[in-house]
């Protein structure tokens, strides 16, 4: 049977943290929530893409993670105010800190995924590399 090139959709690749170039290989070795810390693979198992484009490349992801946390914090503050109407600042502080800790692995993972999928110049999806046999 011929090896048919098929184009893989973007959103499932982003949600499942797949390689931005082939959308087949996993970017992380560990699940998002586990007792082990998250470990990112050095290269894609399917197409061989090196994820860290240059030394210190993921510092940008750290800034993205910070922006995500600020957006989540503002959303939480508005939601707390809307739902509870509380004026006690400790309610806000405690809920935001707890949610910040819970969402930290999410922010870590998806800041790197967003950086590689959307913000890296010259890195685009290549449908030929999505085929079953990498070249
Ligand atoms: Zn790949």
Summarize this structure briefly.
This protein has one domain (10-130). Helices cover 46% and strands 0% of the residues. It contains three helices and no strands.
Account of the 3D structure:
There is one protein chain. By secondary structure, the protein is an all-alpha fold. It is 46% helix and 0% strand. It has one domain. The two termini are 17 Å apart. The mean pLDDT is 90. It binds zinc ion.
The biggest beta sheet, please?
A: none
| Number of strand segments | 0
Q: What ions, cofactors and ligands are bound?
A: zinc ion
Low-confidence stretches: none
The tally of structural domains comes to 1
User: What percent of the residues sit in helical stretches (DSSP H or I)?
Assistant: 40-55%
End-to-end C-alpha gap: 17 Å
Beta content comes to under 5%
Give Rg in angstroms. Answer: 18 Å
What structural category arises from helix and sheet content? Answer: mainly alpha
Shape: elongated
- Give the topology string: H per helix, E per strand: HHH
Kindly state the mean pLDDT as a whole number?
90
Instruction: Count up the helices.
Output: 3
Defining traits:
135 residues, mainly alpha, elongated
List the helices and strands and how they pair.
Blueprint: H1 10-15, H2 59-84, H3 89-118
Helix pairs in contact: 2-3
């Amino acid at each position: 049977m011929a090896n048919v090139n098929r184009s893989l959709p973007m959103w499932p690749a982003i949600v499942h943290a797949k390689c931005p170039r082939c959308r087949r290989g996993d970017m992380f070795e560990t699940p998002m929530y586990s007792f082990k810390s998250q470990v990112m693979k050095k290269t894609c198992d399917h197409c061989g893409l090196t994820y860290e484009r240059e030394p210190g490349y993921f510092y940008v992801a750290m800034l993205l993670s910070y922006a995500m946390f600020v957006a989540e914090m503002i959303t939480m503050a508005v939601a707390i105010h809307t739902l509870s109407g509380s004026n006690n600042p400790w309610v806000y502080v405690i809920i935001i800190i707890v949610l910040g800790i819970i969402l930290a692995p999410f922010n870590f993972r998806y800041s790197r995924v967003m950086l590689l999928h959307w913000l890296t110049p010259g890195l685009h999806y290549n449908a030929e590399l999505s085929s079953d046999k990498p070249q």
